[in-house]
Description:
By secondary structure, the chain is an alpha+beta fold. The protein has six helices and six strands; from the N terminus they run H-E-E-H-H-H-H-H-E-E-E-E. Strands 1, 2, 3, 4, 5 and 6 form a six-stranded antiparallel sheet that branches. The longest helix has 13 residues, at about 70-80. The chain starts with 6 loop residues before the first helix and ends in a 6-residue tail after the last strand. The mean pLDDT is about 95.
Amino acid sequence: MSIPFDLDEHLGRRLYFEDLESGQSWESPRRTVTEADVVQFAGLSGDYNALHTDAVFAAGHPFGQRAAHGLLTLAIASGLTTRMPVYRLMDGTRLALTELRCQWRKPVFIGDTLHVVLRIGDKAPSQSLHDAGRVTMLRTVKNQNGDVVAESEWTTLMKRREVAA
């Protein structure tokens, strides 16, 4: 007989808008980009650009080899972030992703191992919801050499603790 595990009870707390401070940062686990990732992403997205799917074409490109899709890199960054314990503490208090901006700095190749540095940026109470605030979460994606391959800003609507009416 197994005893059900209640993550909420185990963690015992949640992080709200007020608990996050500009400048706080955490690092994610690592993940290696595989051939299967690139092929499956091409199929899912319908993006069969030769730079991602044609080794002969890519060999003649300035990168010299196939590169992962930029949006695949962004999706991997999202997934790595969700594996961070601090991000799990925000489960139930993150209400919505309201804005996303990204700049790709360097190509990501099959075999590269990525990780994310998550940093809290600007915060502001919501203008329209008295019980919520906007938090900019900066995600810097780095490869195995420590090179920054992507920088992104994810503006998230977060619950506030009980606010006096």
